[in-house]
Amino acid sequence: MTAPLKGVKVVELVGLAPAPFLGLMLSDFGARVIRVDNLDNTNGSMFARQKESMYLNLKDPKGSEILQRLTEKSDVIIDPYRPGVLERLELGPERLCQLNPRLIFARLSGYGQTGPMARKASHDINFLSLSGVMSRFGYNDRPPIGPLNLLGDIGAGSILCAMAIVMALYERNSSGKGQVIDHSMTEGVGYLGSFIWESLTQKELLWPNWPKRGQNTLDFGSPFYRCYECADGKFMAVGSLEEKFYQNLLHTLGFEEECFNRFDYESWPEMVEEISKKFKTKTRDEWTREFDRTDACVTPVLEMEEVTEFEHNRIRKSYDPKSGYPNPAPRFSRTPAIGNREGSLETDGKYESQSRDILINELGYTEQELEEFGPNVFN
C-alpha cells in the first residue's frame, strides 16, 4: 500500500512549530520531506520523524546554490521566515520559481507577505488577539486566554497551509504550473473562527450574554456545556446541548426532568452549583461508567498519560503503543498514512543529517566538490 502523497518531494526550511508540523503532516501521508536545517537550531528532533535532513548555511553562496539545485528537483518548498528574508538571500519566489516553474512556494508567516505588520515578529497569542477570536476565550472577570498554541500555530497555520499545498498540487495537474501560497496565520485564525461570526445571527440561543466571556452557551458559561470536578479531583466534560442529551444528563445525575429551565439564563449559576454537587458525589471513573450506559455527550477528561489505555483509543489504535504519540488522522481505506501502519511510527528522537547522500546521489556533486565547499557551507 502507498500513502496518498507518495511521489511528492518537499523542502522544509527550518522554523518553529507551525512549519515542522506542516512538514510532519505531509511526511506522515507519504511525501518525501527534506528538512534544510542549521547547526544553531535548538528544536532538535521536534516533528522530525520520517524526514531527511540537510545542514546548510543559506548565507554562503555555495549553500544558496545547493538549495537552488534542490528546489529545481522538488515539488514544494516551505518558507517559515518573515517576509523579505529569502529575498535578501536571493532565494525568493522570483528566483526559485524561475528555476522550477512547477514549484509550490508555501510562505507561512504571522501576518502575511504584505501590509504594515508583515515583517513584525509574532506568535500564536498575537494571531488570536488580532483575529478577534481571543476575545471569546476565558471568563468575563479575567483576561482572555488561549488554547495553548493549537489554534493559531497548528490549526490556522500548519493544517490550513497543508490544505493549501494539496490544493495547489491538485491544480498543477491541469495547469502544469506552480504558484506562491501567501498564508497569514492571523487570517487563518479568523477563517477558522467563521462560526463565531455566523453564530451571531442566533445571539439569543448561543450568545445570550454577548459580549461577555464565559457566560454563553458554547464558551463554558452554560450548565450543560462545561467541565465538572468529581470526588477525586478529576473532571467530566459535559456537552449535553440537544434536548434528548440534556434529559439523559439530568436522569443519570438523579434530577427530575422539569427541575431546571435550561433556557432561563438567569438561573444558570444556580444550575451549575446544583450539578457540581452531584458530580462531587462520585469519582470520575465511576461517573464514566454511569454515562457509558446512556447517550448524553458526557465523557471523562483524560490526562495525556491515560489516553493510550482508554478502551476506545486502544481498540482503534489511535496512539502509537511504543511512544504513546497520536497516530496520524484522518484514515484512508486504501492509502493509509505511514503512522497508521503498525510499528512504523518513528518517535525515538533520532535526527541525523543526510547531506552527503543527497548532494552526491541526487544533486550530482562529487566527493571532491564536497571537500572544496569548506565548513561554512554546512554551518
Automatic annotation (TrEMBL):
Biased composition regions of type Basic and acidic residues, renumbered to the chain: 343-353
InterPro entries: CoA-transferase_III, CoA-Trfase_fam_III, CoA-Trfase_III_dom3_sf, CoA-Trfase_III_dom_1_sf
UniProt GO MF annotations: catalytic activity
Highest taxon of source: Eukaryota
Family annotation (Gene3D superfamilies): Crotonobetainyl-coa:carnitine coa-transferase, domain 1 (3.40.50.10540), formyl-coa transferase, domain 3 (3.30.1540.10)
Chain residue ranges for the region called Disordered: 318-353
A Pfam family the protein falls into: CoA_transf_3
Protein family (similarity comment): Belongs to the CoA-transferase III family.
Name of the protein in its database record: Alpha-methylacyl-CoA racemase-like protein
Annotated organism of origin: Euroglyphus maynei (Mayne's house dust mite)
Higher taxonomy: Eukaryota, Metazoa, Ecdysozoa, Arthropoda, Chelicerata
